[in-house]
Design goal:
321 residues, mainly alpha, MetI-like fold, two-stranded antiparallel ribbon, 71% helix
């Protein structure tokens, strides 16, 4: 007797093809959404990218080219090779301006960083009032030109209210902006007054990222406020402090407007910072090629300082776990 065996034909589950199509459709849909997000992102980035190309990259490249030429706006640029750089190396006024700028940067960064860090710690440890933070930021809302003019009037040797108060205290009037010794420190402190609130708020934001339980644990262990500052606050604030230092150093090397409205480089070139010397060479003596060479030198100096700061401060690494 023969037994006939019949095996049912193998079939895919009825939902398999549908599920595969669904997965494929989902992948295609995600890809389409990604493309749409990319186009939207490009649309938002386009204005900033256009501004970067037109107002930053192109002028930088044009300035580098002009640094190898003799150009005065009245005649076509004449290629002179490295003549402008040779002149710059042998120019005593350039080196004096660079030294004056370094003096300004050291005073400005030193005082501003210490003051801003103190204000930020006080804001974080004592009060976090939004009104107080607004008051601290108020001087930053004033332009450098207005701040310079206001302090020029306040510190005027004969009529300024600052010198009137000093005279009323029985002290001789101080020529803050008319004396070679006082001029650069005064300009540096004017800019400290204007920028310290903004710098403090940047550091305050960094302090907010430090977990509060670290301070609580330190208090339980009997650590003082001073010890917690050096053992907890400073190490964990280091990346933010490093970035703030890089930003403020770059900005300090580019000081111009405060000098222009208060001392115009005087007295006796005591405040003739590098940016002002570049400006006077270009728009005062129409030596645009030489001014461009000094601008390129400043760009190289700032790039080197920024890279050195970034590496020494380990700005890209944090001690937070």
């Amino acid at each position: 007797m023969t037994i006939a065996s019949s095996s049912p034909p193998s079939r895919l589950p009825t939902g398999g093809a549908t599920e595969a199509r669904s997965r494929t459709g989902t992948r295609q849909g995600v890809s389409g959404e990604d493309r749409g997000d990319g186009r939207l992102a490009a649309l938002f980035i386009a204005p900033a990218l256009l501004g970067f190309l037109v107002f930053l990259l192109w002028p930088t490249l044009q300035g580098i080219y002009l640094s190898f030429t003799r150009f005065n706006l009245l005649t076509p640029a004449e290629w002179v090779g490295l003549d402008n750089y040779v002149r710059m190396v042998n120019d005593p006024i350039f080196w004096d301006s660079l030294w004056v700028t370094v003096e300004y940067v050291v005073i400005n960064i030193g005082v501003q960083t210490v003051a801003a860090l103190a204000i930020a710690v006080l804001l974080q440890r004592l009060t976090q009032s939004a009104m107080l933070r607004g008051i601290v930021l108020t001087p930053y809302l004033m332009s450098n030109v207005v701040a310079g003019l206001v302090w020029l009037w306040i510190l005027d040797t004969q009529l300024g209210i600052g010198n009137e108060i000093i005279s009323g205290l029985g002290v001789d009037r101080i020529p803050f902006l008319a004396d070679e010794t006082w001029a650069i420190p005064t300009i540096a402190l004017i800019n400290v007054w204007r920028h310290v609130g903004y710098t403090a708020l940047l550091l305050f934001a960094g302090l907010q990222a430090i977990p509060g339980d670290m301070y609580e644990a330190a208090r339980v262990d009997g650590a003082s406020e001073w010890r917690m500052f050096w053992r907890i606050t400073m190490p964990l604030l280091r990346p933010v402090l490093a970035v703030v230092l890089i930003m403020t150093v770059i900005g300090s090397f580019q000081v111009f407007d405060t000098v222009a409205v208060t001392t115009a480089g005087g007295p006796a070139n005591a405040t003739n910072v590098l940016q002002y010397y570049i400006y006077s060479s270009a728009f005062g003596r129409f030596q645009f090629g030489y001014a461009s060479a000094m601008s390129v030198a400043l760009l190289v100096v700032l790039s080197a300082i920024t890279i050195l700061q970034y590496r020494l401060t380990r700005a890209g690494r944090t001690d937070l776990g």
